[in-house]
Design a protein that fits this description.
The complex is a heterodimer of chains A (115) and B (112).
Chain A lengths: L3 E4 L2 E4 L5 E7 L6 E7 L5 E8 L5 E2 L8 E7 L2 E6 L8 E8 L6 E3 L3 E5 L1
Parallel strand pairs in A: 2-11
Antiparallel strand pairs in A: 1-3, 3-8, 4-5, 4-9, 5-6, 7-8, 9-10, 9-11
Chain B lengths: L2 E3 L4 E5 L4 E3 L2 E3 L5 E7 L5 E7 L5 E3 L5 E5 L4 E6 L8 E8 L5 E3 L3 E6 L1
Parallel strand pairs in B: 2-12
Antiparallel strand pairs in B: 1-4, 3-9, 5-6, 5-10, 7-8, 8-9, 10-11, 10-12
The chains are: A mainly beta (115), B mainly beta (112).
């Protein structure tokens, strides 16, 4: 149980375009999901906390207009990178608390490359 | 302030040797502690967790960790390392419903 999926696993886009990444909890309901960004050989940086039915809470320094987060259902959160630029290239990972648990389960990540 | 420190950026061990990865934390309340493993290009897989009770916890893949409150540590151990254990290891601290704080990770290389 407590499986989190992400789609796509890899995406390459041109500078200036927008990219949407989906995060799904497959076998449980997740009222709270988290979006992280990870640079090569570095730890995870929390970008935002996504709450079902309400606005996401962004960490300091994260542009909310650039990284749009929507948590429209209990099993799906999306991260849209708007007007992507090469510096947005990174590994994006989502996570969710397993229902009724104190443990975060992580998706497999999405590798974004902006040309 | 909440923080996690993993002092060892990179560790190299021989296959079959024992392993200990260090983790120290700073957290305002009684922490929940976690160890995750990440293979290249993959997400994080939970190895083990500590919430309360017995301070020595067993996890998957033969890993264990010991919580020492007096030292604010939660070190990960494995008696005999396998080549497939080569990966990045992250220690994390958090509480229910709240964000996790991650260490910077320890990269493990296993040599034959």
């Amino acid at each position: 149980g407590a499986v989190v999926s992400q789609h796509p696993s890899r995406v390459i886009c041109k500078s200036g375009t927008s990219v949407k990444i989906e995060c799904r909890s497959l076998d449980f309901q997740a009222t709270t999901m988290f979006w992280y960004r990870q640079f090569p050989k570095q730890s995870l940086m929390l970008m935002a906390t996504s709450n079902e039915g309400s606005k996401a809470t962004y960490e300091q320094g994260v542009e909310k207009d650039k990284f749009l987060i929507n948590h429209a259902s209990l099993t799906l959160s999306t991260l849209t990178v708007t007007s992507a630029h090469p510096e947005d290239s990174s590994f994006y990972i989502c996570s969710a608390y397993g229902q009724g648990t104190d443990t975060q389960y992580f998706g497999p990540g999405t590798r974004l490359t902006v040309l | 302030a909440q923080s996690v420190t993993q002092p060892d950026i990179h560790i190299t061990v021989s296959e079959g040797a024992s392993l200990e990865l260090r983790c120290n934390y700073s957290y305002g309340a009684t922490p929940y502690l976690f160890w995750y493993v990440q293979s290249p290009g993959q997400g994080l897989q939970l190895l083990l967790k500590y919430f309360s009770g017995d301070t020595l916890v067993q996890g998957i893949k033969g890993f264990e960790a010991e919580f020492k409150r007096s030292q604010s540590s939660f070190n990960l151990r494995k008696p005999s390392v396998h080549w497939s254990d080569a990966a990045e290891y992250f220690c994390a601290v958090g509480r229910t419903g709240n964000q996790f704080y991650f260490g910077t990770g320890t990269s493990l290389t296993v040599i034959p």
